[in-house]
What does this fold into?
Amino acid sequence: MHTFAELIIVFVILLDLALAVTGSLSSCIRLVAMQGVVAGLLPLLAGSGAPHTRAVIFAVVIVILKGAVFPRLLMRARDKSGARKDVEPLISYPASILLCLGAFIASSWLGSRLPLPQANVAWIVPASLSTIFTGFLLITTRSKAITQVLGYLVIENGIYIFGLALFVEQPLMVELAILLDVFVAVFVMGIAIFHISREFDHIDTAELSELSDWRRGEYGK
Amino acid sequence: MIIAMLLLPLAAGILAFIIRSDPARRALLLWTACLHFLLTGLLIADSATGGLMLSFLSGALSGPRAAPEAVWFAYDALGLLFIGITSLLFLGAAHYAVRYLALEKRDPGEDADDGSIFNNAPEAVFTGCLLLFLAAMTAVTASRHMGLLWASVEATTLLSAPLIYFHRSKRSLEATWKYLLICSVGIALALMGNLFLGAAGLKAGAGLDLAGLLSNSGVLDKPLLKAAFLFLFVGYGTKMGLSPFHTWLPDAHSEAPAVVSALLSGALLNCAFLGILRVNAVCASAGLADFTGGILILFGLFSILTAALFMLGQRDYKRLLAYSSIEHMGILALGIGLGGGAVFGAILGALSHSLTKAGLFFTSGIVVAAEKTKRISDVRGLWRRAPRTAALWLAGFFLITGMPPSGIFLAKFIILKEAVALKHYWLAGAYLLFLAVLFAGMAGVFISMTFGEHEAKPGEKPFDEPAGMLGPAAVFFACVILAGLFIPGWLNGLLTAAAQNISGKL
It folds into this structure.
């Protein structure tokens, strides 16, 4: 069973790298959805013996949300905003993948140094940390509002895997509340993207820069 | 009782989306606020009398004393204090909002900067989100489980984002987006912190509920607990507006309608601070008070410095008020970090700051209505045009900068005294210097806005000050002045007990 879970971990890392180099917005959305689904299935495979009903229910909720609902919401936001179909990175793709690889090496080093309980799935801590880093990379180096939401989701995936690595079992109510929050976050951000595209005729966040303390003098003149 | 406090605004919020008639929805907002305040008052009175009142009403209700076993929602003194502040502010905000919405309906006004007529968000969405926001804040203050606390804090972000975008303009949209993204990502880090906290108590089986963490604090894994504190500090610190994670705050506060700014600054920042205080309590009882104190002092002082620097040469008076909030959050963090008597000062400061800042934001809304601009240099001679507003504006300035007698003066003084008593002379000196810069920066702005020669613009109509919008600010200012002169016994008891909660005693 564990070898299968380890395969999934490798898959998660590969998805991180793929996210760093993918130029098409819709395949980015699909990659993030796939990562969410795979991460959601992980607890079912990592445990020994038959999984609890609680874990199964939770995994099903995650797979539905991250695999079907989120991509649909984001695709809708993409279509309605009428944005260009590529992610418009602020740095080149080779730089992105180098950063991503560097993050993976740093995470492996950090994972071996952290005083964490021994995980029974190899590479799970480095995978989660580098996923979180990939999320930050997407938020900071991509200019579209949708990719920032994707980055937020990737960070959430990373934190979820990290939680599995630490064996922190939160009560079902809390886990569901967190998921509900993520759902509402994607929903509200989707609406905001729609409004941004209508007000500005673009969803390029690099140009959302009217509010600052230094250039205050010019506006309104 | 607590369940009722949670469900009341929740149900009212959902109802607000359905109701078609504006007056009915406004009445609903007002009545919910009143009822929520009544329930909160009942809880506080109950805790002040040692639980006599409510146990008389119903044997099963016991409020804070149900704490030992793991319960989802319960109030200790700290939570009670913060929900008291929130509920009082919301009551004032509801009164203000009813008048404000009526005013906006008649005349949505034009954008102060580019002259376009505002296309406001539907009032149902605004009122509904306002009420749901109250429900989320109630959940934050009542949560006894760190995971639930996290979920509630994130919920406050999501529910308040539509409120910032009430005036539909490019700038408010930009502010909303920054607020949503920076706070959501920041709070995601706090989720990491929660995981570390859970891992720290894994061997001891402490779980993530506060009672379990506090009673097992001796056997928690120290390095993991430190990591947990760092992540939670950065996460909730982002939401609280501590520098350098504060970047969303001035934008959101200046672009939101005045009533929302008041709630964000007075109630929401406190809620985020509560998250830090909770983990601080766990760390303190695990013997890590020096570690957490150092971090809190460092970032507290840095926030005060940032606020002081950005206030000089500020051109927008609502942004000025936002930076003043960052300053006060810095002072709170500093007070908690110093420990000892300063903790009492810090929470007295939290109480007074919330009331004063809410009052100031309420007043700033009237100034915007009168002058149609947020630029400091365009507002002159306010006392001629709107004398009562000008009086409140000036009074608010004296209170917020800590002129005696006010609760803020008392709080700042207690923290200074503690810093000197602990022989942190450099710290005390820097603190005083920054406060002096802040005072100078704000004094110029407020005095030139209040006095100075008013230049009548062509076609300017005399401004009719709406008394209903002035009322809440006046009441809040009076409370802060009173708190500077005399702290009643029940409030003193509540503040002392809250200070003990922060120091990690159950």
